[in-house]
Amino acid sequence: MKLHSAAIFLGFAVAALPLLAADAPLPRPKAGKVEILPLDQVKPGMKGVAWTVFQGTEPEPIPIEIIGRWKDMWGPKQDIIIAKMGGKALRTNVAAGMSGSPVYIDGKLVGAVALRLSVFSPDAICGITPIQSMLEIEDLDQSRPDDSRTPAKPAPRSDQAAVTGELLGQLVAAGAVSGGLPSEMPIMEPIEAPLAFSGFTDDTLREFGPLFRQMGIHMAQGGAGGDLRGGQPAPGWEHALNPGDAVAGVLVDGDLTVTGLGTVTYNDGKRVLAFGHSFFNLGPVDMPMSKGEVLMTLASSYQPNKMANATDIVGALHQDRHSGIEGVLGGVSRMIPVDVRVRAFDDKNRASREKEFHFHVFVQQKWTPYLMMLTLYNSVSELNEFADEATYRLSGQVEMNGDRNIALSTMQTTGEMPMPASMILAGWFGDKFNRLYLNNVKTPEVKRVNVTVDLLPERRIAVIENAWAADSDVEAGQPLAVKVFLRPYRGDPIERDFTIRIPESLAKGDHRILLSDAETVNRMQNMAGMMSHFLDIPETVSLLNQERSNNRLYVSLVEASPTAYYDDKTMPSLPGSVLNVMQAGRSPGRSLITTPETAVEQTALPFDYVVTGSFSLHIHVK
After folding, report:
1. pTM exceeding the 0.90 threshold for the entire prediction
2. Equal fold, 3-189 vs 192-335
3. Per residue in 536-583, pLDDT tens?
4. Distance between CA atoms of 473 and 470, rounded to whole angstroms?
5. Which residues lie below 8 Å from residue 515, measured CB to CB, with a gap of 6+?
6. Cβ atoms within 10 Å, residue 560
7. SS3 at position 231
8. 3-189 has which fold?
């Protein structure tokens, strides 16, 4: 049976006592079916009660007095109820984390506390999302909002207007506002669902804070306890999340946690409605849903906020909509297990300290790459040896379901740019997942991520400076001795001797030996991949695995014949006739990039440095 059908026809007992009569405690609301009070029956002056948790896990009643209806506030035929809160809310004001607090009048459910005034106010003025708007969420299964809040875009522009003269009159009559109104009229805005970070350093929150603020997300220090275990519901989930309880959406759990806190509005025994406004407005989602424990509610006329811990996972959020979120008790959400090992090395290249982190990451095409970036940055920041003049050496793999695994290997160090090496490393890591999850053909299935990061106590970067060959006149099929010279950031030049064999098939004439960094070798293939809009997951995985690591020097033989790069494929030494056919027959949306030369990789020399630059040796095949 649908939520709204059950809500209309069956009653729920909440004692209808006068708000000022505190002789007997009100019975707290429980899960089950409840009668609703239609919006057209809500009148100014009506008194009711809201339920929310101020401390611990038990919700408390808050007196509510209806001021009036703000018509079309959310949009056409989307009204908001304006009310004044009493009791403890007079001290705390309308705090972040109260989103979803259920409001009852005469035992009937009216809606959820969801908005507050955007400017300083001595009164706890709130906006209530009507329960009818929240009950509509169940009918929205597959549509995806255009104005979702993701790391790829800023917060959507608010279309809320200034408070109307009629409403201001009601507020003044109710004692909610007095003379001396600010020059900029106050507006009602959604109460933040504070995003709580546990296990994160101050440096991480400073570095990533601007982006969250750009999305309109309020960051808070928080914690986690209980049974957060990768989307699996904890025992006892059947009796969790009664109306008024704290509820959280879980983006990261484990040794690091990122959770968004709000309040449960309605629970029919299986499905749960909360917040009264969107979390990120993502539409259909699959996010773990947990209980919450409030440590305290910080009173403030500027930024009142609930300080809370997410506790046991009890289900899954399936809808994140304009008027609230909907979850299912007992639901299981798929998360990505991530294992990160961070080792600090001393100046004798010995591992002196080591830490391991194990956590799970929420799966969503734009949030997953960003959360991978955030958690890796924080993991490498946990060591006391963390410093600007350092080098990070990363190795690991991304395990895929149904596709080849992706090998990860890179070194990042401080350079001329002001961005620290740890952020460059995190950005490199996040980009791998960005390329996977923004695939236009199919959604990837990542099984697990394993990463080891070594923190080296110096800037390790070396530029290819020069090279020397034993002879410039060579014979096909014969070995050639080569010496290469690299200039490190500090210290003596690095020399490396190696031998390559000139291929027997190499034509007579002039050729080049190219000694280069990974960026030079990767450039054309990466460009072809980025220009193709229809790469499938196997092709994307293939491209990622073809990328060379930047701690190696690549030796290639270059000859004057064209090469074509098509999606994830490299086709060297193409005859002109074949190339003309390919250019004429390629389909729209698929890239074909050509170069006049062909570089055939002969060998790769490993270095414990970030290798940059290139150098060419000219040879003549006799």
Report:
1. no
2. yes
3. 889 889 889 989 999 999 999 988 877 777 666 777 766 665 656 656
4. 9
5. 464, 467, 484, 553, 554, 555, 614, 615, 616, 617
6. 13
7. coil
8. Thrombin, subunit H (2.40.10)
